[in-house]
């Protein structure tokens, strides 16, 4: 299962090359991640209230095609790796009307408490851990086929 | 007395018009404000540790000339209004080699505690209040003459 | 007539005070402006293709209440002043479920060609000028009553 | 040879976790890349005037330690891979007074003309190609020893 997020490119997100600046995609990934967590019946702000954080430890992006001002964007988000101490989300970004992703990426996080110390999520909150499993995808691309 | 901050325009700060996006100037104002406070022997992070915040309640900008990627920028910051409960900073932004400001602005803040509740700064921390007075300028422009 | 834009607060838009950073509101204003122009049957990117730009010359914001991560936001945009050479948009930003605006503001623009030189819009494109008149509001607040 | 860039963490760059938001590091990488190119006697804006662009096709970041508001930051930039059609820059980000990088990363770019079409840089501008070779490092870390 993947979660879907719709966005419209903001003027501020463009740069003088006339395309969306690459630093914007990690922000869109985060919008996708927020929606996945909300879609799971949680809410990221609720997670933070529970004293659970998801600090990033790694990020990868591949930029295949540019996006432009006012383009309608779809972010598909899933979980590509899940262990008691870590979770890796994967993302694919599409322009409306195109079937190929324009950008794909992953973000790797540790399950942490509010002091940013790692916690074993499977023991700490097995319910949340189980929920995240339902978003597990082998590969976002494969699911599309 | 004014405080001076040097910056170089970042590529990410440009937009598809080929100029610095207007939402960047409030960030540069904030850099100037941070430096003014540091210049006064405080540090904004120190203020926050003391439980003092400066939430914004108003902002004004005038955009006269554009700035471009790699331009060297000078932010001049001062205090234009100071009361026990409020402080207004003023800013002028210059491009290296030019005598006219390209952007000018003001930000109005309330002295607040860490719950964002207003405090009377003259009573709460008269030392900090006094320090801020030394940055009082009638008008940044006039000082230039 | 006002145009309405819905947004959800992004994590990246928060700062260490735990609220939306003030430099984000000009970006939301721009989203509102983009939608107003699209709502009028134009599109800002189309305007730029016509060689028409709307560079900012002034901006004002009043910050009344903070917004937080995941808040659902409504931006109401209108035109508060229109002359052959200038246009001033006004904005009110609401949190879902609240009737009072949390932030209000204005942005003043010049009608310009693609070299950022001013043009008389009433002569240059009377059709677009007329369209903008339909979004004229005395005051966004008054319209609410 | 590496190029060095000094930055100070801006308030706007923090998020509600109280640390620099991860989307800021790609922007600091870009500041480092800009300075490397300038350090080489070119200037990125000059490259763009020559009709040469460096669109990103890939990015990787590892986040080891957080950075905080007002931290003094050092970005070390080098070239880790160079072919006639592609260039990969590598970056290490340090906090003042620490010897371990807090964030490291790479960005992969294609040499492109102003229509974003790939060019063979070794043929097109052998002088620029040669210059970039001087920043070639096996690994930024190793150079430190």
Describe the structure.
The structure is a homotetramer of 145-residue chains. The first copy, chain A, is α+β, with helices and mostly antiparallel strands. The first copy, chain A, has one domain (3-139): Thiol Ester Dehydrase, Chain A. The first copy, chain A, is 26% helix and 32% strand. Chain A is built from 5 helices and 7 strands. In chain A, strands 1-4-5-6-3 form a 5-stranded antiparallel sheet, covered by helices on one side. A two-stranded antiparallel ribbon of chain A has the order 2-7. The model of chain A has no long low-confidence stretch (mean pLDDT 91). The interface between A and D is medium-sized, with 23 and 23 residues.
Looking at this protein, list some descriptive labels.
homotetramer; 145 residues; alpha+beta; Thiol Ester Dehydrase, Chain A; five-stranded antiparallel sheet; two-stranded antiparallel ribbon; 26% helix; 32% strand; elongated
């Amino acid at each position: 299962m993947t979660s879907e997020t719709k966005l419209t490119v903001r003027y501020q997100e463009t740069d003088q090359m006339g395309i969306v600046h690459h630093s914007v995609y990690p922000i869109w990934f985060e919008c996708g991640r927020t929606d996945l967590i909300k879609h799971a019946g949680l809410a990221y702000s609720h997670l933070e209230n529970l004293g659970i954080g998801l600090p990033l430890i790694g990020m990868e992006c591949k930029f295949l095609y540019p996006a432009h001002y006012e383009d309608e964007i779809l972010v598909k988000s899933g979980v590509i790796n899940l262990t008691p101490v870590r979770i890796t989300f994967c993302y694919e970004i599409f322009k409306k009307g195109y079937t190929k992703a324009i950008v794909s990426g992953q973000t790797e996080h540790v399950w942490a408490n509010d002091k940013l110390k790692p916690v074993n999520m499977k023991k700490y909150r097995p319910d949340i851990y189980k929920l995240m499993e339902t978003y597990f995808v082998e590969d976002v691309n494969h699911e599309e086929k």
